[in-house]
């Protein structure tokens, strides 16, 4: 624990090793983050008084390979990014967690009762209570703390701000009360448990694991209760490429049925082969049975089943390419995955509103600029929202100008894969 004055001095305007590891080497970015931290430290003092504190960082994440594969027990490739939620926290020697986060109402969670509270559903308080409950059930220590959070992972950005918050709370509890002994994957599983059982959203585990681990990771969900997590040995920052996420501005409202149709279609095909999910069958089996089941399950379901099988294998091939340092082959497979999502998985625009095709337009513009030199694909669930592109330095300015000409200034976020997962920031 250190005083705010000591930490501000150690931040040194962003000129320090840990900031360069978290945020890169661009002087303007380092100074911007220094201001974030200094403002948050002062905000903590205004809300909770002068105390010795700790600082924490929890990144966002990006899905890189395996689009809509996890819910059918498939494989994914994901990475932590350099947009993060940061937090200043300190024990308060009470049995209450008190959190202030800009843009959200201040809230408290009394640890005397850790049962789900119906009125808290879909709130941050529910997530905190659920995480504390699971910590305690797992034999870990919990306790009261005060915290101020700066949410640098934008809500609705497709970079998983909710999972970043969950893992952040887990890291705070881990460091303040458990001497940092809890494994990152266990922290991720606890966050998922809270989101499923307290917040009320049936999410998978990819987001939390990518955020907790940092860097590039691949996850195999063949046994969903015991996913196999592997760190991918590849230095993205050495490629000279930027990872650009573009928000196309489309609304996710009224898309629940569209999202739900994807796992439903895939599982309908699996069921015709006596299986629960597509991971339990092969592409050859699907092709063999397809003519007999077209009328029953629909052609779209068969196309989505083909997408699953190809994209699930593609994750393995992408990891192999990265580990042998063949970035060109990796980029080609990113494009292949994007085409597969477009043609087979069909999650690029909503059939209920074909006039709105922001994702389709962003992908078309990306191909115009990047074909032969970069890669582009839908990002996350699809239908609306964001796309992802890998852009070489010589085309970055042109790419940003082209996409923001259509979607507005600030629609593009230029990122990189950061090595550090959710962590205590040691200044």
Radius of gyration: 22 Å
- What fraction strand? 15-25%
- Helix percentage: 40-55%
| Overall mean confidence score, pLDDT | 93
Instruction: Name the shape in a single word.
Output: globular
> For the report, how would you describe the main beta sheet?
8 strands, mixed
Summarize the structure.
With 427 residues, the chain is α+β, with helices and mostly antiparallel strands. Helices cover 46% and strands 19% of the residues. Strand 9 and strand 10 form a beta hairpin.
Q: Secondary structure elements and their pairing?
A:
Blueprint: H1 4-11, H2 17-23, H3 27-48, E1 54-65, E2 75-91, E3 96-101, E4 107-110, H4 124-137, E5 145-151, H5 161-177, H6 184-199, H7 206-213, E6 216-220, E7 228-232, E8 241-247, H8 256-272, H9 283-297, H10 299-323, H11 327-345, H12 358-370, E9 375-378, E10 386-392, H13 393-407, E11 412-415, E12 423-424
Parallel strand pairs: 3-5
Antiparallel strand pairs: 1-2, 1-12, 2-5, 2-6, 3-4, 6-7, 8-10, 8-11, 9-10
Helix pairs in contact: 1-3, 4-5, 4-6, 5-6, 5-7, 6-7, 8-9, 8-10, 9-10, 10-11, 12-13
């Amino acid at each position: 624990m250190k005083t705010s004055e000591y930490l501000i001095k150690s931040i040194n305007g962003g000129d320090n090793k840990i900031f360069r590891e978290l945020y890169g080497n661009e002087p303007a970015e380092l100074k911007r983050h220094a201001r974030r931290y200094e403002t948050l430290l002062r905000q903590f003092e205004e809300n909770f008084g002068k105390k010795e504190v700790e600082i924490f960082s929890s990144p966002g994440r990006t899905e890189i390979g395996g689009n809509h594969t996890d819910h059918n027990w498939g494989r994914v490739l994901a990475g932590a990014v350099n947009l993060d939620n940061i937090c200043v926290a300190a024990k308060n020697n009470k049995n209450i967690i008190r959190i202030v986060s800009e843009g959200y109402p201040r809230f408290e969670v009394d640890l005397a009762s850790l049962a789900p509270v119906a009125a808290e559903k879909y709130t941050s308080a529910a997530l905190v209570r659920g995480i504390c409950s699971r910590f305690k059930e797992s034999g870990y220590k919990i306790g009261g703390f005060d915290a101020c959070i700066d949410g640098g992972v934008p809500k609705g950005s497709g970079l998983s701000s909710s999972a970043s918050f969950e893992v952040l709370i887990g890291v705070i509890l881990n460091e303040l009360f458990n001497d940092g002994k809890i494994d990152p994957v266990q922290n991720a599983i606890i966050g998922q448990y809270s989101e499923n059982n307290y917040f009320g959203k049936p999410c998978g585990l990819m987001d939390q694991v990518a955020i907790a681990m940092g860097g590039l990771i691949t996850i195999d969900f063949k046994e969903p209760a015991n996913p196999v997590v592997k760190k991918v040995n590849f230095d993205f920052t050495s490629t000279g490429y930027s990872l650009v996420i573009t928000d196309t501005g489309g609304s996710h409202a009224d898309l629940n049925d569209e999202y739900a149709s994807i796992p439903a279609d895939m599982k309908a095909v699996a069921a015709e082969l006596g299986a629960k999910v597509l991971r339990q069958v092969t592409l050859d089996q699907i092709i063999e049975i397809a003519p007999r089941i077209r009328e029953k399950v629909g052609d779209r379901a068969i196309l989505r089943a083909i997408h699953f099988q190809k994209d699930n294998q593609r994750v393995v091939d992408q990891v192999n390419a990265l580990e042998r340092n063949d970035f060109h082959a990796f980029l080609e497979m990113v494009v292949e995955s994007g085409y597969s999502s477009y043609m087979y998985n069909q999650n690029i625009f909503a059939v209920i509103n074909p006039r709105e095709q922001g994702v389709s337009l962003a992908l078309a513009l990306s191909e115009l600029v990047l074909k032969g030199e970069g890669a582009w694909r839908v990002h996350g669930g699809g239908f609306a929202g964001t796309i992802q592109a890998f852009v070489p330095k010589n085309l970055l300015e042109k790419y940003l100008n082209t996409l923001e000409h259509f979607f507005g200034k600030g629609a593009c976020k230029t990122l990189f894969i950061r090595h550090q997962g959710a962590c205590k920031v040691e200044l």
